[in-house]
Every structure is written in C-alpha cells, then in structure tokens.
Amino acid sequence: MSMSIKYELIIYWSKEDDAFIVDVPELPGCMADGVTYEEAVTNAQRVIEEWVETAHSLGRPVPEPKGRLMYA
After folding, report:
1. Mapped to the 3 state alphabet, what secondary structure does 1-34 carry?
2. Could you give the CA distance from residue 72 to residue 62 in angstroms, rounded to a whole number?
3. Closest Cα to residue 9, out of 18, 55, 32, 54?
4. What are residue 22's DSSP bridge partners?
5. For the chain, what is the radius of gyration of the CA atoms?
6. How far is CA 4 from the centre of its chain?
7. 71: part of which helix (H) or strand (E)?
8. pLDDT digits (tens, 9 = 90+) for 36-66
C-alpha cells in the first residue's frame, strides 16, 4: 500500500546517532532514521505505512493528518 505522506515530519540531524532522525508527532512512537535526509524520509514513509497497517489490524484508531502542528 503506497500512500503519500500527509503527516507532519520533524527531521533533524542526530550527532549521537550519526544519522537524520524523523519523528512523526501525530503517530505516537512513529520514528525513522537514515544516513541521508532522503533515506530518512523514505524510511519514514515505510514506517508510517506499517504504523497505520498495524493500527488497523489491532482495531485501533488512526489519527487523521492535521498538517502543520502548532507548538506553544
């Protein structure tokens, strides 16, 4: 199931991990990483798809993408 990413991605470089980290704040626990920015985003898309598939198989709700989140 190839879906387009509609969830907000927070991408940052982690010196500690020597990799780009992608956090998907709307999906609890959903994170990915990659050696390059592009690899991290590609991995995030796969992890998002797996997160959604797992939630559906467990009968859990899947949050609708809200787009840009506002932080206080």
Report:
1. CCCCCCCCCEEEEECCCCEEEEECCCCCCCEEEE
2. 24
3. 32
4. 11, 32
5. 13
6. 12
7. none
8. 999 999 999 999 999 999 999 999 999 988 8
Closest CA to 18 of 31, 36, 45: 36
Reduce the DSSP state of residue 42 to 3 states and report it: helix
Is pTM beyond 0.85? Reply is: no
Q: Give the number of C-alpha atoms closer than 13 A to the C-alpha of residue 1, restricted to the C-beta side.
A: 10
Pairwise CA distance, residues 10 & 1, whole Å: 23
Report the candidate in 41, 7, 2 with the shortest Cα–Cα distance to residue 25.
Answer: 7
How far is the first Cα of the chain from the last one, in angstroms, to the nearest whole number?
A: 35
